[in-house]
TrEMBL record:
Lineage start: Eukaryota, Sar, Stramenopiles, Ochrophyta, Bacillariophyta
Keyword Cytoplasm listed: no
Name this protein carries in UniProt: FAD/NAD(P)-binding domain-containing protein
Family recorded in the similarity comment: Belongs to the class-II pyridine nucleotide-disulfide oxidoreductase family.
PANTHER family, A to Z: THIOREDOXIN REDUCTASE 1-RELATED-RELATED
Species per Swiss-Prot/TrEMBL record: Stephanodiscus triporus
């Protein structure tokens, strides 16, 4: 474990260390058809120099699914019904492609007035009703020992999050394709892990009584900013668009955001909202981030704000497969998509990839759900050493 930890990036290690700081867990429901095994293990982090010891919860299950979009939820629905203990690990139910889709007019059987997030809520609830456990956490690293090298090790696939480690017999990659594209903001890459972060739930606790900036106008950014208000003295929420000023354009944009969360954030005394303001640069020194530079349209003078952390969220996300947490452990194609065979198997035995993370031309909810079904049936065959897939509608 220690070797793995040392191999992780500075940001990942920061995330691990943050698990040690008491903070509210954002986990949602947790019901199981077959009980997963939960243990607590003691391990060390990069902060071991200060003799810090972590008590890390470890969950053992049959199927770990990274990503709670339509692909992950459908897969979980099928594996749970097949009596395989299943854990979905999802960064944020509001940040995936389906979650930000205002209306779904082409998912069979669903009324065209239904929003993407409503459809996703139903998919998640259905998977949970069959016994899947939904954990809200950001995965930052996986470890995938192929089964032929695992020997007697039954739970040979490991998924790391700041609070919990999941050890599974099979692993499904379903993190979608909302990854960042385009050029980062100047200073963003330089200070990544040294004050720049993409995960408030991972790193927020480092900013107790500090000033931080959150950049982005999505529901994800709002949720992350709200989380930071638990720790930071001041949260500068910077949006390049106007959201709350009561203008027509602001109201239109407003509609796609979670109104309750938006109100909560704007009413929070620690929040300073800077509308129609662009984040131009993240500044710092050897200690990490010290300031951000922002600009309002029509103004020649930039403003520099003193902060210790800058949390950057693209408005609506990008379109790159999210595979950074895989760290080259599965084969990718030239476009960055995970390569799979017709059973959704990746280059590593026992590891599957479904939905937009495959980066095909067919990025659709119905395709993601279909991938999830195929992977689940393939996993059932694999874990139960069957020669053929078991179809659950053939009833005797
Ligand atoms: C604006 C927009 C409109 C669209 N409209 C339609 C439409 O009308 N009809 C249609 O069929 N399709 C539509 N699509 C496409 C469709 O939404 C996607 O094809 C589908 O959602 C893909 O499902 P997925 O489960 O692979 O990924 P996603 O839906 O993106 O879900 C991925 C999940 O993984 C989580 N995640 C990401 N990284 C991590 C991590 N490190 N750790 C843990 N969890 C992680 C995310 O939080 C998210 O919950 C639209 C897409 C967009 C962007």
């Amino acid at each position: 474990m220690l070797v793995l930890l040392l191999a992780a990036s500075a940001s990942c290690l920061a995330s691990f260390a943050s698990a040690f700081v008491a903070r509210p867990s954002p986990s949602l429901s947790s019901s199981l058809s077959r009980p997963t095994t939960t243990t607590t293990t003691t391990t060390t982090t990069a902060r071991a120099t200060t003799s810090t010891l972590l008590r890390m919860e470890v969950i053992e299950c049959d199927v770990a699914i990274v990503g709670g979009g339509p692909a992950g939820c459908t897969c979980a629905l099928y594996t749970s019904r097949a009596d395989l203990s299943t854990v979905i690990i999802d960064k944020n139910p509001a940040s995936g492609a389906l979650a930000i889709t205002s209306h779904i007019a082409n998912y069979p059987g669903v009324d065209r007035s239904m929003s993407g997030s409503e459809l996703l809520d139903q998919m998640r609830a259905q998977a949970v009703s069959y016994g899947a456990r939904y954990l809200r956490a950001q995965v930052f690293m996986i470890d995938v020992v192929a089964d032929d090298e695992a020997g007697d090790e039954r739970h040979a696939k490991t998924v790391y999050t700041p609070d919990v480690t999941i050890r599974a017999r099979s692993l499904v990659l379903a993190a979608g394709a909302m990854g960042r594209v385009g050029k980062p903001i100047p200073g963003e890459s330089e200070y990544l892990g040294r004050g720049v972060s993409y995960c408030a739930t991972c790193d927020g606790a480092f900013y107790r009584d500090s000033a931080v900036a959150v950049y982005g106008a999505s529901t994800e950014a709002i949720e992350e900013a709200l989380f930071l208000t638990k720790f930071a003295k001041v949260v500068y929420w910077i949006t390049s668009v106007d959201i709350s000023m009561g203008t027509d354009a602001g109201l239109e944009r407003n509609k796609v955001l979670d109104q309750g969360l938006l109100r909560q954030l704007l009413e929070c005394p620690a929040v300073r909202h800077m509308e129609r303001t662009r984040l131009i640069e993240v500044l710092g020194d050897a200690s990490g981030v010290t300031h951000v530079r922002v600009r309002r349209p029509g103004s020649d003078d930039d403003t520099t704000i003193e902060v210790e952390g800058a949390f950057v969220y693209g408005a609506g996300g990008g379109s790159k497969p999210i595979t950074d947490f895989c760290q080259s452990k599965v084969a990718l194609d030239e476009g960055g998509g995970v390569i799979v065979d017709e059973d959704m198997k990746t280059s590593v035995d026992g590891v599957y990839a479904i939905g937009d993370i495959r980066n095909t031309d067919y990025k659709q909810v119905v395709v993601a759900a279909s991938d999830g079904c195929i992977a689940a049936m393939s996993i059932e065959k694999f874990l139960n050493n069957r020669k053929t897939v078991k179809v659950d509608w053939i009833h005797k």
